[in-house]
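Troubleshooting entry. The earlier prediction with guanine gave an output that would not parse, so I re-checked the input for stray whitespace and re-submitted. Clean input:
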Amino acid sequence: MTESSNKTNNASTISATNTTNATIIDGKQLAAQIREQVRLDTLTLNGKGIKPGLAVILVGEDPASAVYVKNKVAACETAGFHSELQRYPATITESELLGHIRALNANKNIHGILVQLPLPKHIDTHQVIETIAADKDVDGFHISNAGLLMTGNPLFRPCTPYGVMKMLEAYKVSPWGAHACIVGASNIVGKPMAMLLLAAGATVTICNSKTQDLAHHTRHADILVVATGRPNMITADMIKPGATVIDVGINRLPDGKLCGDVDFESAKTVASAITPVPGGVGPMTIAMLLVNTLEAAHRSQAV
Ligand code: GUN
């Protein structure tokens, strides 16, 4: 694939800010459009007597998790959803937490359940995720949802990778035949991202912390997705000219500023399109959580 065939600069569905260099992929604007559509669809569903409901569980006092959870609950309210925030101390036992999840599984007003990660070390995250009913697992982390995604028939797509796919679509970046490189192999982002890009026709490389000569892989990528949690680790020299760069990282620097995993200022001189931090992938994660919860509510109607 040539560098330019990978993307068309004029996104028809969303206006792009063009700097001297790369197109800035505006996740805030795209997320707002998606959230408005969810709000309208929710009104229609209300007419059928259904109010989408999301329960969010936060364990412990991690400040970043508290902010994410607050934003998720606020987004539910704006969309017209019913939302419940359950906060528990870091000392909660695993069996108590599983009991709360089972109660939510049985609650007819709740269509989606999200347990904010990470959890305290004494709690088995795998066990917690497996206890969430698969048809309420709007994060898409349950083993049966991961399996459905892998076999090409997803029930829920994990929100961050799903948001990335929506960004590529809105900016007319086609994965078909492209080489996609994902830096970071987590269950939340890297692995499901690989499955979605593969299903969309990309040739996918997944890099991890043991990868030798990371730059060799990133430099061959038409689509580069970075989710490592390491501030500014991807620099311009690691990017193929004309690539689309998606930065999933949100890191807080000692001076309080937010930055991504990609050195934005240098990368935008090489990439043809790039997501900023903040205002890139972050807002899309929340928008897709609403999409998944709405979908779960629709399905409950069919049951
Ligand atoms: N922690 C970081 N990202 C996520 C996410 O998408 N879902 C949940 N539940 N926890 C997270």
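This one parsed fine. The chain has ten helices and twelve strands.
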